[in-house]
Amino acid sequence: MSEARTSGPPAATATGGSGAEPAKDAGSTKDAGTEDTGNRPGPAGGRTRRRTPRALSLLTSGVGRLWLLALLIAAWELGTRTAGSDFYPPPSQILKALHEMWFSGPAAHLFLTDGALEDFRPSLTNLFSGWIIAAVGGIVLGLLIGRSRVAGAMLDPVLNFGRSVPPPTLIPFLLAVLDLGTQLQITTIAFGVIWPVLLNTIEGVRGVDRLQLETAKVFGISGTLRLRRVILPAAAPKIFAGLRVSLGFALILMVISELVGGGTGIGARLTLAQQSFQMPEMWAGIVLLGVLGCLFNLVFHLVERRVLAWHGGARRNDA
Amino acid sequence: MLQINELSHSYGDHTVLRTMDLRVGEGELVSIVGPSGCGKSTLLRCIAGLIRPTSGEVLLNGTPIDGVPDDLAVVFQDYSRSLLPWLTVRDNVALPLRRRGGSRAERRSAAEGALKEVGLADAGRKYPWQLSGGMQQRVSIARALAYRPSLLLMDEPFGSVDAQTREDLEDLVLQVHQAEGMTILLVTHDIDESVYVGDRVVVLGRNPGRIRAELPIELPTPREQITTRSDPGFVRLRAEVGRLVRGAAASGDPDDSDAEPPGTKTVSATTQDDATPDDTTPDDTTPDDTTPDDTTPDDATSPGGTADGAGVEGAVSGARGGKG
Question: Is A311–B74 a contact, with Cβ atoms under 8 angstroms apart?
């Protein structure tokens, strides 16, 4: 888990040092709970903005960072122009390719070209289908396994194995079983990204405060009501951390599945550009994927902050 | 209404409660007090049906308890964990009412009513973590009230609030008890509190936990923090309970001699409550309180305000330190 989590950009902020926990805490739910709270300050403390002194904070604030970004792009432009290599087109050319390929469409289509619709639609459909399947599957399975001590203990080795298999290695197998195309891609994504959701849900469910469960018991809150109003919300912070990591993975696996599985999509377009030696177009694909990753992360962050507003508030108050 | 017959509980080899018998009448407010480790919480959990005792039985209105009875509510000490942080105060109070049926609007208005009763009429839309500790515990009490239990258990409910808030909450419990007439069992480690709140005080001893004594508290009923606490009767009872608890804490049978009627030596006994280390010396020898035995009544009434205040705080902080 830990190696997998840190490979995606969102992983580091989402779960901090808790990567090794699920395996360690297999036996005792109590430990999971206490370590969970112990770890919470971690991610919050990781935000550098609060710690930096005033002079630095100006540099790292919104404007400052944009300024730095502009400088880097300018340096990139200058460097690539001087080098004049076909493999490293200057950003201006990449931007032009980006614009021509995908964003020069009519205003009615949000400036998206037909090519954009053709490329984005399958990619994003696969990505979100796979991610949603993984999310639903991971949460449901996680709830079942997390609530049952026996199942948890028995399945622990299996889960550890499952999450340790690098998802792309399944593609050859899936290629043999499934046809090229959507089904293969969605399966790859769903299988690859279910693990962070599943393991985090299990951990979150196991870590529900004993007193909260006792309170539920005393006041006759049971069955689905308890699940919806006590267990799920209590596990939600962990589940969200898992979902965030999964979304990062999903993007990676989407591209890989398209690079290997061919057909349509942004990844396929990227391969095509590379094969036909259109370097600016290839780079445009890379830049687009990076932007998409940032965008997903941002939207996810906003949703999470809204849904888990209570969590942030309660945590601030504890400190 | 509540009957405990030969209740024993052990965790493995460790016996926590041994053959305990207790009866609580309808509408009674019983304080259970004892040193830490005397099995107070275990007893409460057995009554709540959260744990199954090793032997013996608990009868609620004649029916043996198996699982949590549906007309029983608990106010836990740790309000910040017992209240659900993702629900508003009103939803926290209203959630248990699902079991009682009724429309959403009815549940909400019942919750609002209970919040009003504990003096939090305006806090319904807030989240628990936006309130102070004392207010959060009020929410817990409101949740229990809205549930309309016939038996309310309180597990060291004021153990983690400051002294002033604690007094307010004690009065709230008395007020609620009077208004609703439910049976209340209040577990505490605070000797003053047990006497101030209770109709009857049950003192537990430890190793293993057992009932050491039961004392009826016959104090004038609308109790009031200042006057009740300076009442000679209160001072005497507090000393008596204090001695019993201390004897229980020392956990040896020889201390049973301390349980004799304290008579005139009450003042030195109360100071003994505060001066923790030297309780090997029995009664009189405490030098600080210089007043000889005969002046007891005066001492309890005239400078009573300050002296008692110190006593209360000493007991509170001492108890808290012991609890950890």
Answer: no
